[in-house]
Amino acid sequence: MSEKTFVAVAKLDEVPPGAKKLVTVGKVEIVLCNTLDRIFAVRNLCSHAYEKIDCGRMKNGWISCPVHGARFDLETGQPINPPAVMPIETFEVRVEGDEIAVAV
Ligand code: FES
């Protein structure tokens, strides 16, 4: 069984409630989202036509794709409405002190 590696990507105060922040780990773009009193991390890649989602609306635990409007659950990555039918990739998040780390 391989251990996940948590990589520090941002300070907690860089992602206040209701905000998002785009970070990069290696070549992977990850959108950090502060909603529902916690931090979520999802890949900056829509499962529909593979557009970036970091400019989409984000609230109440979901993010919407700015291109065709699919919304995704930030916890599971599952689509909430069409046209997307596949989930987006999600990452485990750990907040240690004032640092946000994601499992990659
Ligand atoms: S590319 Fe995101 S909904 Fe179409």
Written overview of the protein:
It is a single chain. With about 100 residues, the protein is an all-beta fold. The protein has one domain: Rieske [2Fe-2S] iron-sulphur domain (Rieske Iron-sulfur Protein, 3-layer Sandwich). About 0% of the residues lie in helices and about 45% in strands. The strands form three sheets. A four-stranded antiparallel β-sheet has the order 2-3-4-8, with no helix packed on it. Strands 1-10-9 form a three-stranded antiparallel β-sheet, with no helix packed on it. The mean pLDDT is about 95. Bound molecules: FE2/S2 (inorganic) cluster (FES). FE2/S2 (inorganic) cluster (FES) binds next to loops.
Number of helices: 0
Q: What share of residues is helical?
A: under 10%
Strand order of the largest sheet: 2-3-4-8
Using only CA atoms, what is the Rg? 13 Å
Oligomer: single chain
Order of helices and strands: EEEEEEEEEE
User: Which structural class do the helices and strands define?
Assistant: mainly beta
How many distinct domains? 1
What is the CATH topology classification name?
A: Rieske Iron-sulfur Protein
Name the shape in a single word: globular
Features:
single chain; 104 residues; mainly beta; Rieske Iron-sulfur Protein; 10 strands; globular; binds FE2/S2 (inorganic) cluster
